[in-house]
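re the bet — no i am not wrong, look at it urself. input seq straight from the record:
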Amino acid sequence: MKITYLGHSGFLVETKEHYLLFDYYTGKLPAFLPEKKLTVFVSHSHQDHYNKEIFALQCGADEGNGQEKHAMQIVTEKMQEDHAVQEVPEKKLSERRRIVYVLSKDIRRKQAEELVRKENTLLSVKAHEKYTLYEGQMTVETLRSTDLGVAYIVTVTEDGGKSYRFYHAGDLNLWKWEGESKAYNNNMEANYRREMERLKGQYFDAAFVPLDPRLEGTAFGGLDLFLETAKAEIAFPMHFWKKFGIIREYLRARPQVKNLVELKEEGRTYEF
C-alpha cells in the first residue's frame, strides 16, 4: 500500500488493484496505470477540497482498436436508496478507462453531470448511507460532517481476499472556535461525539483526520477523540494549511501516540 500526501486534505491511496483519490484540489498527480480502478472521493464543495479538474483525469488506455462500447453510469435518488447502479447505454467512446466519482450531495449534481466524461460513473452521496461499487469489491459508508458534506469510510476487497479499510474525515472535526459562544461549541462537541460513536471499535489501515492550527487551543481535540474511539494502523493529519509545525507540536504533547505520520512536505509518498 502506498499513500501520497498531495496537499491540505488531499491524499492518493494506491493498492495492488485500486487508486483512491481523496479531496484533491492541488498537487501533482502521477500517471494512473490502466489496469487499476480509479475512484475519486470529494467530501464537500469547499474550494480547498474540490477542484473541477478531477473531471479531466484519465486512467490510462485500453489495448485494442479503441472502439469498445462503454456506458455512463448514473445513480438516481431512488437507486441511492436501493444502493444500486443504473447503466445508461452510450455511443462508442474513446479507449480511456472508466473512473468512479463519489461526490457529496452538496456538490451540484447537474454541474457535475455536465463535467464528467461519458465513460465514467457519478455517484452522489449523503450522510449515514452505505453504497456498493465494483460488484461488491468496494463499500462506501458516510458520516455527517460537522461543517459541510460527509466523511468517508471505504472498504476495498481485492482478488485473493486482501481487504483494506480507510477513513477520510473531510471537514468532520471538532470545530470549537475560541470566538464562538459556549452554546455553539457545546453543540459542536455533541455533534462530533455523535459521529465518532459510529466509529467506536472500528479498525482502519489508514485514517486521514484534520489538525487545524486555526483552532488554536482546541486544535488537538478532534484528532484526540478519533484516536480514542477508533483504531488506525496509520493516521495522517490534514487540513493544517501548510503549517507542518503543528504536527510536531501534537506529537510532543502526545508522546503516547505512535501511529501519527509526521508530514513534512507535500508530494511525498509513504509505502507500508
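see?? The domain at 2-271 is CATH 3.60.15.10 (Metallo-beta-lactamase; Chain A). told u. also The CA atoms of residues 179 and 185 lie 10 Å apart. so pay up
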